[in-house]
Amino acid sequence: MDLVGDTLQGSQIAGARLIRLLDDEDERGVEALKALYSHTGKAFIIGITGPPGAGKSSLVDCLITELRKRQLTVAVLAIDPSSPFSGGAILGDRVRMQGHALDDGVFVRSMATRGQLGGLSRSTFEASMVLDAMGYDIVIIETVGVGQDELEVVDLAHSTAVVSIPGMGDDIQAMKAGILEIGDVFIINKADKDGVDNLEKQLMTMLHLRDYDNNDWQPPLIKTSALNKEGAESLVDAFFAHRQWQSDRDLLNKKISAREFHFFNEVLRELSSRKVLERVSNSARYQQLVADLEARKIDPYTAAETMLEQSNL
Amino acid sequence: MDLVGDTLQGSQIAGARLIRLLDDEDERGVEALKALYSHTGKAFIIGITGPPGAGKSSLVDCLITELRKRQLTVAVLAIDPSSPFSGGAILGDRVRMQGHALDDGVFVRSMATRGQLGGLSRSTFEASMVLDAMGYDIVIIETVGVGQDELEVVDLAHSTAVVSIPGMGDDIQAMKAGILEIGDVFIINKADKDGVDNLEKQLMTMLHLRDYDNNDWQPPLIKTSALNKEGAESLVDAFFAHRQWQSDRDLLNKKISAREFHFFNEVLRELSSRKVLERVSNSARYQQLVADLEARKIDPYTAAETMLEQSNL
User: Is the ipTM of this complex over 0.85?
Assistant: First the structure.
């Protein structure tokens, strides 16, 4: 298999394999990504975040249908927060979004995460690069918007929608306040349920608390019912309006540059700390410090500072 | 204020101030923590995790009541996932667990998180050290068990309970499977609601899929109704049984050592990458690479490797 060539041709087998190699931190994955890199930067990346139970998967399913109607190809990265523990995604790619299983213009991957290497956001960044290089017009990143990690993931998107639903508890209200700042579009899903007016009022109030001026994007509020397949058209329109608004101000390119700068620093950080740790961890001094730690003779901070001082860095 | 002395005396003002300094990455905080360190290692740290809406806060409230009945002092760290975005906890400490507001034996803190420095798990580790040094018998870490970050936090605990409730959607089921591996105790909260039998059956099935042998701890399944104040006694008994089981096998000390080793490496990693970045980021070569990145002449991986090769590390 020509990993780079086949991926650029849009081969789903090659793309899936490359994403897996990257997830396994296999050097071949990184090498292929370097070769693909100049072919990326074309896809429009959409983030969908919201609490568990908000119906994000069904919503993404409706979005796919609407985007396909518009002749656009779509890749989905479903971030499964449980995967670090199970060693793989719980909801397999196959059981998700089955309606599109036979459509070549749709590609769905569940993301596993890896340990120390920049975590979820780096994995997702890399996978989105692969999907971009494969030629998909739209890449959707679907994530549970709770942890810091997940929210960093959403930060990769060019346009992000925050999903809420009527009638959830205090935790959800608190979360909503916290993720307000990342929403470019707000979705009230399950808009056929009781409590929509109340939720809408709350969201409007929260949005008004944001410190907008006339030059800022004003996030629209879209009501959807993924179950009844309502609202996907307005939602897609809202994303494209936001994209246009950003392009008109050259903000999309700035976003892409900022993201690349961020990952350059992340990789540099990771590579340098790894190099230092490799060098010191075989030293007698390191072993001594570990023994002192175990005996509670030293605290972790002093131990780390001592090690670094003596490493001739 | 004598930050170290007062904290060791159990002063809530000093403890709160120290936690804030650590959260702000203030050097005085780290210095105080070093001085406190030898006084830690006594508290029993309990983790409570579960999805938004599972009633964790009310459950913790009942736990506090039960622990106070047993003459134990309790500190709570409530991890608010939204805080990285709001710049502070949404639910203030004052509005939480008001029933214990006048009780000196109870101390509740909502944790904010910070950016790059090891994130949530390091903040929580440090705060739990402070609470431990203050002399609390029990430290409860309450967190939304979704993101990887939050699950790392729970990994700090000596004993962790996973809370589920009847009648939630697919996302919850997926999450439950993922966090099964971290549960030492399983709680079905809102056990007065419909669907308890079904949930119990599902949890039992999942637990049986775990690969136990006779030497493993067998996690109990406890039903609670935080609203009706039922089940807290059995729950506290379960935590103490797990603690005893671990002490008998010298596993608690091993857990504490492993945690310290982990943070020693984390701090070393962070300090070394920071040192390298400080050194290179003013170089002409770094500026050139950033310009090349912006022009998409180079990918972030090659750029980072190039920088590191030329940094004489």
Answer: no
DSSP B154: H
pLDDT at B173 over 60: no
Residue A108, class by beta-carbon neighbours within 10 Å (0-12 exposed, 13-18 middle, 19+ buried)? buried
Residue B91: its pLDDT value, please?
44
Whether residues B230 and B270 fall in one domain:
no
Residue A256 located in a structural domain: no
Tokens encoding A83: 């995967």
Summarize pLDDT for A54-77 with one digit per residue, the tens: 888 889 999 999 999 999 999 999
B2-31 core/surface letters (b: 16 or more CB in 10 A; e: else): ebbebbbebbbebbebbbebbbeeeeebbe
Structural domain boundaries enclosing B278: 265-309
Could you please report the per-residue DSSP string of A166-188?
A: SS--HHHHHHHHHHGGG-SEEEE
Identify whether the C-beta of residue A249 lies closer than 8 Å to the C-beta of residue A255.
Answer: no
Long-range contacts, A250-254 (Cβ 8 Å, 24+): A252/A158
pLDDT in tens, B122-157: 788 899 999 999 999 999 998 865 555 566 777 789
pLDDT at B86: 32
- pTM equals 0.74
Query: A108 and A238, same structural domain?
Result: yes
**How many CB atoms sit inside 10 A of residue B102's CB?**
7
Ramachandran sector of residue B162 (left: φ over 0; alpha: ψ -120 to 50; beta: rest): beta
Q: Which residue in A228, A130, A140 sits closest to A185, CA to CA?
A: A140
B161 vs B51: CA distance, rounded Å: 12
Cβ–Cβ contact B41 with A under 8 A: yes
Counting every residue, how long is chain B?
313
Q: Could you say which of B41, B119, B179 has the minimum Cβ distance to residue A82?
A: B179
B90 is a domain residue: yes
Helix (H, G, I), strand (E, B) or coil at B13: helix
Is A11 contained in some domain?
no
Q: Do A299 and B38 touch (CB under 8 A)?
A: yes
Q: Does B187 map to a domain?
A: yes
Q: Is residue B278's pLDDT more than 50?
A: yes
SS3 B157: coil
On the 0-12 / 13-18 / 19+ scale of CB atoms within 10 A, A136 is buried
Q: Residue A271: is its pLDDT beyond 60?
A: yes
Q: Among candidates A97, A122, A101, A98, which has minimal Cα distance to A111?
A: A122
Give the model's confidence band at B296: pLDDT under 50 very low, under 70 low, under 90 confident, else very high: confident
Higher-pLDDT residue of A41 and A97 is A41
B212 and B65 share one domain: yes
Q: Which residues on chain B are in Cβ contact (under 8 Å) with A273?
A: 268-270, 272-273, 276
Residue reference for tokens 């004003």: A218
Assess whether pLDDT exceeds 90 at residue B113: no
- A91 to chain B: which residues are within 8 Å by CB? 170, 174
Total structural domains in chain B? 2
What is the predicted pLDDT for the residue at A169?
53
Asked if the Cβ–Cβ distance from B52 to A280 is below 8 Å, we say no
Q: Which of A53-57, A78-82, A136-140, B305-309 has the highest mean predicted lDDT (pLDDT)?
A: A136-140
Give the CATH number for residue B154: 3.40.50.300
Residues 6+ apart with CB under 8 A from B11: B134
Average pLDDT, chain A: 83
